[in-house]
């Protein structure tokens, strides 16, 4: 497994969007949820949930191709860019799994991982993943 490095760069995520992502993960505690986040002018603004069509949705995620294409079309129509790909880990920490590292196909996107593994506390961490290496990015809440 590759080592995770922490990046000094901070990425601001609005509290409302963060709450929405955490809520979606709580709604499906037994399966990984997934989707996309669109941004305007570099600021994440919209969550686009996409169905998880993985064979083992409790252990990994695979974005439904048709829904992913539709979400990306909606982003373009709304003047947004792909900011992040998110998914949850119902029974694992909020860090990329070996599968996550191997499957990462968008090196410019942030990968947000939400963990439900910590009793009573939800955790969300962000990573840039390229060539099976993960670099953690500090996430800060933006009160907006």
Topology, please?
Blueprint: E1 4-14, H1 15-27, E2 34-40, E3 43-50, H2 65-77, E4 81-89, H3 98-103, E5 110-115, E6 123-130, E7 133-142
Parallel strand pairs: 1-7, 4-5
Antiparallel strand pairs: 2-3, 2-4, 5-6, 6-7
Give an overview of the whole structure.
Helix content is 22%, strand content 41%. It has one domain (4-142): Cytidine Deaminase, domain 2 (3-Layer(aba) Sandwich), CATH 3.40.140. It has a seven-stranded mixed β-sheet, with helices on both faces. The chain has helices spanning 15-27, 65-77, 98-103, and strands at 4-14, 34-40, 43-50, 81-89, 110-115, 123-130, 133-142. The termini are far apart. With 144 residues, it is an alpha/beta fold. It has three helices and seven strands.
What's the CATH architecture name?
A: 3-Layer(aba) Sandwich
> Which regions have little confidence, pLDDT < 50, spanning 5+ residues?
1-6
**What is the strand arrangement across the widest sheet?**
1-7-6-5-4-2-3
- Reading off the top of the CATH hierarchy, the class is best stated as Alpha Beta
Order of helices and strands: EHEEHEHEEE
Quickly give the structural class: alpha/beta
The major β-sheet equals: 7 strands, mixed
**β-strand amount:** 35-45%
User: What fold name goes in the CATH topology slot?
Assistant: Cytidine Deaminase, domain 2
In angstroms, what is the radius of gyration? Answer: 14 Å
**How would the global form be characterised?**
globular
Number of domains: 1
Task: Please give the number of β-strands.
Answer: 7
How many helices? The count is 3
By CATH, the superfamily comes out as: Cytidine Deaminase, domain 2
Range of helix content: 10-25%
Overall pLDDT score? 90
